[in-house]
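User: For a benchmark we're assembling, each entry needs the component sequences followed by a predicted structure for the full assembly. Here are entry 17's components. Please fill in the structure.
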Amino acid sequence: MKLAFPHMGHLHIVLKELFTGFGCQVLETPPITKKTLELGAKYSPETVCLPFKMTLGNFIEALEQGADTLVTCGGVGPCRLGYYSEVQKGILQQLGYPFKLITVEPDLIAVVKDLRLLAAGKSWREIYRSFKQAGAKMAALDNIERQLNLIRPREVVAGSADQLGFQAIQAIDGAAGLAEIQRIEEKTLAALQALAQRQYEPLRIGLVGEIYVMLEPFINQDLERRLGQMGVEVHKTMYLSDYVRAHLLRKREYLETYKTLAALAKPYLGHYVGGHGLKSVARTIQMGQQSYDGVIQAYPFTCMPEVIAKNILPQVSKDLDIPVLTLAYDEQSGEAGLMTRLEAFVDLLHYRRRQKKAGC
Amino acid sequence: MQARIGLPQGLLHYQYGPVWERFLTELGAEVVPSGETTRETLDSGSVLDEICLPAKVYYGHAVKLYREVDFLFVPRVVSVQKGQYTCPKIIGMPDMLRNNSEVLPQIIDIDVNLRQGTRPLFQAVTAAGRVLGQNAVTSMAAWYKAWKCHTPQKARPVLAGQPAVALIGHPYLLYDSLISMNVMTKLQQMGLAVLTPDMVDEKTANQAAGVLGKKIFWSSSHHLAGAALALMNGSWPVKGLIFMTCFACGPDALIGELIAQRAQVLGMPCMHLSIDEHTAEAGFVTRLEAFTDMLTRRWRA
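Assistant: Structure for entry 17:
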């Protein structure tokens, strides 16, 4: 069995750890390139959202490399993600690839069945250990990324923080054992902190939106890094570990947070609309209250939940006096257009800050 | 004084409109329907950004009514079937209305969420009655009377020596004469018998949709896909399939692909017809004509 799964940020490092621990042979899906996007877009329905096209491209490239088992996630709606697998399966079959698709549905009995299939012959203790290890890698990677977003606008030597981050990701990918992961994490965080830093108050921008676009730098065209280099402290409202803890493990603190967010959003959006639409609205309100300088909403073009949020955010922006920039990504998104919009937005935020300081 | 309630004629109105109208009338309100879609409806609906055409049309209908009524009836229909949703845009509609217009009258946006069971329906009905000052018993009685108006299934046309085509699309698309550009009449005039998803009963559609590896979790799309599969496979004599959708419709992007995949396996001609507010009629007619010609030729052969 040669197992492959789609890319999303550093998800592949985490899943590789997990499935290797199960005793599966993992085939690393080729990293996302323009070619992946072209392949995905070519065989996908025209107006489907970008994550569908990208993951389909990933699958095709993995199958070309010799993968025979694909793992993907399911869902119960109303976001389209939950129905990806059925349609993608049909497309790949029509293309003539032999493969087996395992869709992990959010249902305990189904998950146990999937586990027995994937981790055949492994004891529950070993399975637990794999989860623990993969979870540690995920948390470490997210903590480093969070720190990177804080250091990037302050670094004196441009690119020094990213270099450390890059090395850390490589090291964590190769790490074995909880102690080693923790050591790398601590070392990297300390090294980042020790970098030469400028003392000033950078702009604070919150990043809300759809998880795939927020987490995958190829798709969002390195949004966080670009903003960091422009001297912006980016606060991403969702990391992979947040998603896993809230949606898969259903940790109490996250469920409580969700309740608070739903209450915040209530005057603007009174019901869950799938995906992260409600959270985009709620987080924007929260950041308005915490006087952030601005908010950027990033999502794939035609994403249903985010489009609803988008149509509500202008009112939130007006009421809480916080500028919101919406970025819809599709396979046509160009770099120059993005830069122009980001520069204009950052200029606007600087201007607002000066005005506020001057007291008018 | 009798309360005047506006009923925007869009989205789920094409399925439940008569029921809602009767229900509100039974409760002693005066119902003001917004009427057919016009160019102005489309223009005022374009306030909404990036969203599908039917949602814009709905918004346009609501805006058209606001001056004439005391209430707007925009129920938040989250789910009408166990384990299924309607569509995120329908769920978010009351909020999109509220946040994009400052002049709206009070919106009756009771939640109708039957995803876990039918009990919330009673709550929804009594909540709607309460807004109009009626008690629970009166509201329920009104609802039972109104529900009798619900006719989910349309009669099938009698075939008289002409090829039949399945026209698959949401009711709010097919039956809105402006946005669908009267596609049904056009096809009939070109000599085709037109079969639509609402001519397939729920049981048949459910059964046909059973071949899918995973149940579709949008109720209307589930019916569309089921009906399309039933029309393609069963004893139904359709010669071809037209899948009509509007640009940026989320569920349709996937369902259209599913149907096209199945049609290809069966060797059945399938045309994907996508429309938006910029669609010009001439190009639309040309495509319909070409498809009809092809079907008729295959049918004669």
